[in-house]
Amino acid sequence: MKYKMKIKFISIVIIITLHSASITLHPQSVRPIRDDVGFCWNATEMDKFIKFLSSETDISAATSQSKLIGGISVHDDYLYAGKIYYPLFKQIRTKEVLIFGVTHGTVRKEMNDPKDILILDEYDQWEGPYSKVEISPLREMIKEKLSKEYYIISNKAHSIEHSIEALIPFLQFYNRNIKITPIMITQMPFERMEEISKQLSAVVLEYINQNELEIGKDIFFLISNDANHYGEDFNNAPYGMNEQAHTAATENDRRIIKENLYGEVNTEKVQNLTTEIWPDPANSKTIPLWCGRYPVVFGLLTVNNIIDELYGRSIHGELFKYSDTFAEKVLPFKNTGMGLTAPFSYKHWCGWFTLGLYID
After folding, report:
1. Which helix (H) or strand (E) holds 239?
2. CATH top-level class for 31-359?
3. Distance in angstroms (rounded) separating the CA atoms of residues 327 and 29
4. Burial tier of 191 (Cβ tally within 10 Å: 0-12, 13-18, 19+)
5. Closest by alpha carbon to 295, among 279, 268, 274?
6. How far apart are the first and last CA of the chain?
């Protein structure tokens, strides 16, 4: 009898040990870092970088008395664009952020150029410099309630796209427990954007109301976007490749921002923005190569829908800072593990800006 009892006890121990091993073999899925050169993934270095930016950056433009509920952010290398990121992210203290990201050419090539849809992921967490970044329950609610024809789920697409991860170190510096809802936007006609945005807005509103969230305090909206990518490497040099060309192209970016994203940003302005930054073979105007031309339109439509439904108002935009890689050159932040992923010259430069979205 004792012998049999002993055998049973050993069996139980073996089962428990194997069960524990199975847990070890199947950890949570964590979205890996895509760009470990241009962005900062070390907590100590990120602390030093923010301290450096706080002493180097003029944030006098960020003085609005209105309520900041969203923004448009650069996603380029920190050593180029750190002073452009800083004025926006310094003001974000929310618990979670819905991020509209780009579907870059690398992703389109790997994914057979998906169009007319959103791309969601199913990672349990994303990497961050301070700790793993949790995913908001909003993502699963979107999967459940958004029409299946409007989205696909692809960890592969998100793992090779850098426009969302670029924002995480800045977000996590100011809130170690930040949660995110990452959504990649593909190319689609304006009418399709309106259709999908309307339904997505209804899902986000339901989530906000169910959880009694306050926009700007509990949840924030971020749109990842770089402005003109100029030069021979981009096959985009309508003004030439010299000092006068650089001035003309950056002035055109500033004009587009002023006319379409500054002040009240209503549906008419958002639709007009498509004529400024979306390629159109029938349009003879010089179209700048904005890297974010689809998420910026989709994101603005969605945020406007939500704010209109909640408050009966439109959003308005205020520019914090516009610049480019040639004008900024490399920040004098020394002894860093960060680097640069592209050169800068009159033959290759990228414009970018940060802009706040407000309600009165």
Report:
1. none
2. alpha beta
3. 40
4. exposed
5. 274
6. 80
pLDDT in tens, 93-147: 999 999 999 999 999 999 999 999 999 999 999 999 999 999 999 999 999 999 9
144, burial (CB in 10 Å: exposed 0-12, middle 13-18, buried 19+): exposed
Angle, vertex CA 195, rays to CA 214 and CA 275, nearest 5? 100
Decide: 290 and 296 in contact? Cβ < 8 Å.
yes
In a 10 Å sphere around its CB, with 0-12 CB exposed, 13-18 middle and 19+ buried, how is residue 39 labelled?
A: buried
Helices 293-311, 267-277: inter-axial angle, 10-degree rounding = 180
Query: At which residue do the structure tokens 């998906």 appear?
Result: 114
Pairing of strands 125-126, 219-224: unpaired
Domain spans in the chain, listed from the N-terminal domain onward: 31-359
Burial class (CB in 10 A: 0-12, 13-18, 19+), 334: exposed
**Nearest residue to 354 (alpha-carbon basis) of 168, 163, 75:** 75
Beta-carbon count within 10 A of 14 CB? 10
- Distances from the Cα of 24 to the Cα of 11, 12, 28, 208, angstroms: 20, 19, 10, 36
59: how many CB neighbours lie within 10 A of its CB?
16
Instruction: Quickly count helices (H) and strands (E) in the chain.
Output: 12, 14
Alpha-carbon span 215 to 317, nearest angstrom: 16
Q: How far apart are CA 97 and CA 336, in angstroms?
A: 28
pLDDT at 360: 73
Question: For residue 158, what are the contacts with CB-CB under 8 A and spacing of at least 6?
Answer: 31, 119, 121, 123, 164, 182, 184
Q: Is 35 exposed, middle or buried (0-12, 13-18, 19+ CB in 10 A)?
A: middle
Partnered with residue 290 across adjacent β-strands are 228
From residue 273, how far is each of 163, 276, 280 by CA, in Å? Answer: 21, 5, 13
pTM assigned to the model: 0.91
pLDDT of 28: 74
DSSP 3-state of 81: helix
Which residues have CB under 8 Å from 345's CB, separation 6+? 231, 326
